[in-house]
Specification:
single chain; alpha+beta; 2 domains; 11 helices
C-alpha cells in the first residue's frame, strides 16, 4: 500500500488564549495510572468521499513536567484546550486547533494518507485501519527518539505499518481507537503481548511494571472523538490534513472544485464528473463510478470500454 506519512515531536509551545474544553483527559490519566507508558489516540477522516485520500492520525499527549503544567501545575492538563470531535468544529477553528496541536511541545503526532489506488486495492476500511497503525507506529518512533520527525518516505512508513514489532516492543503502548473496528495489526500485537506476558508469569514471575513495558493493548471507543482527548485531537489533525490535500488537488484539477466539495459526492461534484469525467484522484471502485471507470496500465482513470481500458486485453 502506498503511504504518505508525517510525524512530529517536541516543537515549540503554542500561545494565546483558548476556549475551555469540555472533554478532559480521564481516559489517558487512567491508562497511565494502570502502568501504560505510551497512551495514544487514533482516528481517521475521509472514508465517505468519492475522491482523494483517507487520512489517519495518531496523537500522544506527554504529561507536563512538574512546574510546567500551567495554573495549579496540573500535569494531566490538556495541552490545547477546546479540542473536540472535528465534525463539531467550524473549519477556521479546526485549523487553529490543528496548528496549536502540531506546535505544542507536549503533543507527539503523526498522520498517514492512503491514496485512491491503495483504497481500490484494499478497500476503504482496511486502508483507514492500516493508516491508524502507520500513524501510531510513527508516534512511537518519534517519542522514543528513533525518528527525527518531519515527513517520512512512503516505503519506510509502509514497512513500519506492515510489520512493526520492533516499534511497539518495549514501549508499553495503550492505543484508543475511534469506532468499533480494530486495526488488524493491533489484534496481532495484543495476542503476541498476551502470550509474552503469560510466558513471563510462568517462567520468570517478573513484576507487573517490568512486564507492562513489553505490552501492547488497543481499545475501541464508539464516539471516541467525543470521549477521549487524544482521539479528538487525532480527528482534528486527520480532517485538517485531508482538507489541505484536497485544496492541493484543487490546483491540480482546475474546474473540479476539489476545495469546495472536498471529494464528497455532492450534486455539484457529480455534475462536474458527468461533464468532465473522473480524475486520477477519484476512487474508481466507489459507486457511481464503479463499472464505468477503470485505470489503464499507467494508473490513469479511463472510461470502461475505451481504447485505453486495459480490461479488454485481460
Amino acid at each position: 500500500m502506498a503511504w504518505l506519512a508525517s510525524a512530529h515531536s517536541a516543537a515549540a509551545a503554542a500561545s494565546g488564549a483558548e476556549a475551555a474544553s469540555l472533554m478532559g483527559m480521564a481516559l489517558e490519566d487512567a491508562a497511565r495510572a494502570a502502568g501504560w507508558r505510551h497512551v495514544i489516540g487514533v482516528d481517521e477522516a475521509g472514508r465517505g468521499p468519492l475522491c482523494g485520500p483517507v487520512v489517519s492520525a495518531a496523537v500522544m499527549v506527554l504529561p507536563a513536567r512538574s512546574g510546567e503544567g500551567g495554573p495549579g501545575d496540573d500535569t494531566s492538563a490538556e495541552p490545547v484546550p477546546g479540542v473536540m470531535d472535528s465534525k463539531t468544529l467550524a473549519e477556521p477553528e479546526r485549523e487553529r486547533l490543528a496548528e496549536a496541536l502540531m506546535a505544542h511541545e507536549r503533543v507527539v503526532w503523526a498522520v498517514a494518507a492512503a491514496g485512491p489506488r491503495a483504497i481500490e486495492q484494499h478497500n476503504i476500511l482496511r486502508a483507514a485501519l492500516d493508516g491508524m497503525t502507520v500513524a501510531a507506529d510513527a508516534v512511537l518512533l518519534a517519542s522514543e527518539g528513533r525518528s527525527s520527525g518531519g515527513r517520512s518516505s512512503a516505503a519506510s512508513a509502509a514497512a513500519r505499518g506492515a510489520d512493526a514489532g520492533p516499534v511497539w516492543r518495549g514501549s508499553g503502548a495503550k492505543v484508543f481507537v475511534d469506532g468499533n473496528r480494530m486495526p488488524p495489526a493491533f489484534k496481532g500485537r495484543m495476542e503476541q503481548s498476551l502470550a509474552a506476558e503469560q510466558g513471563q508469569n510462568e517462567g520468570e514471575g517478573q513484576g507487573e511494571d517490568k512486564g507492562r513495558c513489553d505490552a501492547f493493548e488497543a481499545e475501541t471507543l464508539v464516539k471516541g472523538d467525543s470521549r477521549c482527548y487524544s482521539i479528538a485531537a487525532a480527528s482534528v489533525l486527520a480532517k485538517v490534513t485531508r482538507d489541505r490535500i484536497m485544496k492541493e488537488l484543487d490546483g491540480k484539477y482546475p474546474g473540479y472544485d476539489m476545495a469546495g466539495h472536498k471529494g464528497y459526492p455532492t450534486p455539484a461534484h457529480m455534475a462536474i464528473v458527468r461533464e468532465k469525467g473522473a480524475t486520477d484522484s477519484h476512487r474508481l471502485t466507489f459507486a457511481p463510478l464503479k463499472g464505468h471507470w477503470t485505470r489503464d496500465e499507467s494508473g490513469k482513470a479511463v472510461p470502461v470500454g475505451s481504447d485505453s481500458d486495459g480490461s479488454a486485453s485481460e
